Amino acid sequence: MVVTLGPYDSLRDYIAALDASGRLLRIPDMDQDKFEATAFAYRQADRLDSESTRAFLIEQVKIDGNVVAGPVVANLYGRWQDEALAFGIDPAGDSLKALYRRVLGELQKRMSAPGQWNRIAPVTVDAAVAPCKQVRLTGAAINLLAFPWLKNFPTDGGRYINMASVILQHPEHGRNVGTYRCQVKSATRIGVNPEPGQHGWRMLTDLKRKGVKEVPCAVALAPDPITFAVSSNKMAGFGQDELFIAGGLRGKPVEIVTCETSDVMVPAHAEMIVEGVIPLDAMEPEGPYGEMYGYQGPRKEQNFFMNVTTVTHRQNPVFPNSFTGITHDMPRAPQTAAQFYKYKAIMPNITSLYIPRGANGIVALTIDKRMAGEGMAAGQAVATDLGKVVVVFDSDIDVLNPGKILHAIGARWQPHPASTIIPQTLAMAPDPSQRNRGMSSKIIIDATRQWPEEGGPPSWPPLSRDQLEKECPEAFQLVDGKWDSYWR
Ligand SMILES: Cc1cc2nc3c(=O)[nH]c(=O)nc-3n(C[C@H](O)[C@H](O)[C@H](O)COP(=O)(O)O)c2cc1C
Fold first, then answer.
1. What is the DSSP string of 111-162?
2. Does residue 186 fall inside a structural domain?
3. Stretch 288-307: mean pLDDT, rounded?
């Protein structure tokens, strides 16, 4: 099969590329009444490192005793190879480290300034050619319960639409596109969960304060992967339209189409659009829900909800699901690239920045330290908006390799004086260790070799490996040349 490189116009095109490159696992059926799909997601994560896990597609799923047609797809992102495809970068042939550098370099070309993405305005297409309008459901024909939304955990409050972009329009601040989980509450009602402080939450609470009674809203299931990346990462400031950034990253506009029942515009190539209105004079319970850190979040007594007025979808829609806290559900490359180049512009000797997959709250940095204190200064700068634990290494540490990271912390770091603790600051809400949701302490660990003036030893002994390479450079050539023969 021929692998077509992105940027893709639709999720299904990306799935086809994963399939063609042998990176998609196809599973005929699963029994989610027995939580088979959730347990499978855990077992993949238990048995494989995160770069070796696969996106998986389940053709049909048993839900509440019924076999429901999918496909349900999951674990779609979070691997450099797959994300490279999504961003139109050929992943072939490189080591992981080289691919990481190449992806970041390519994404830098899509920035107008360090950390600032190019913008391309979306274009409106006619409803007649919009794939998301191939099937229209109104009135009694709407039954959200008939679709394969999954209940991930026995303790979840219900089944969830958890990989969709919630699109709102504010009269002053414009459009907002954010990925927020939506609990399926009945045939025509869903919860909508922007956490306090999120841009969607700010828009809804602002309109409520102004006395607005209800807001039109559209939930776009599975726009193209880049639009989904922008919807799921903080890449747009408040009042900046995510679809312009998605266009800039794609190098071509996102095609949008008007909703059936409101002026809200939605990505035309999405798999499904759930349209409706969010009442602002009422709220209701939502959750509990197994959240991104892998712990069960609280049942919320008062949360937003939406009354559904219309559903449009493609023929045979694809249903992405987040097995939240287990699978990798959002492309991380753009956020990594934006942060790397933003901080590199201030401190050019920062050589890499990495947000390890599956380790929420941890950020690893490397730096070519030129003066005492620079490692800690770089870590403090990054900690202002990223991570709970920011660890700074010398540039010889491969931050994509968790073993090397842990080894360097063990061998090079002295907790005193090479640590700084920030006692309390704003942070990502679902971290279960927080005493007050949304507030966290932070630590910056300077695991660069500390110089004497930083409190380190008078001198550092040479690395044994460097000694070997210096004294007997042919040793590695010998082993590399015979490598395959050792495994026969
Ligand atoms: C699969 C997935 C589910 C998410 N669910 C939520 C959610 O329920 N509530 C929330 O506030 N953020 C959630 N997020 C994170 C937001 O999408 C992200 O912070 C985004 O920047 C929010 O958009 P905004 O900046 O326009 O508010 C989720 C992200 C992903 C990838």
1. EEETTEE-----EE--GGG-GGGSEEEEGGG--GGGS--B--STTSSS-EE-
2. yes
3. 96
Determine the Cα–Cα distance for residues 29 and 14; give it in Å rounded to an integer: 21
Residue 480 lies in a domain: no
User: What number does the ligand 1 atom closest to the CA of 198 have?
Assistant: 27
Taking the whole predicted model, whether its pTM rises above 0.85 is answered as yes
Is it the case that residue 115 has pLDDT exceeding 80? yes
pLDDT digits (tens, 9 = 90+) for 202-228: 999 999 999 999 999 999 999 999 999
Distance 318 CA to ligand 1 centre (A): 20
Cα gap 330→393, rounded to integer Å? 26
With a 6 A CB cut-off, is 76 part of the ligand 1 pocket? no
Domain boundary among 65, 86, 108: 108
Closest by CA to 330, choosing from 198, 229, 220, 431, is 229
Tokens at residue 77, please? Answer: 């992102």
pLDDT of 310-358, one tens digit each? Answer: 999 999 999 999 999 999 999 999 999 999 999 999 999 999 999 988 7
Distance 346 CA to ligand 1 centre (A): 28
Residues 6+ apart with CB under 8 A from 354: 100, 336, 363, 364, 365, 399, 400
The reply to whether ligand 1 has any atom less than 6 angstroms from the CB of 12 is no
Q: Is 190 a member of any domain? A: yes
Is residue 374 in contact with ligand 1, taking CB distance under 6 Å?
no
Q: Quick one: 358 and 425 in the same domain?
A: yes
User: Ligand 1 within 6 A of 335 CB?
Assistant: no
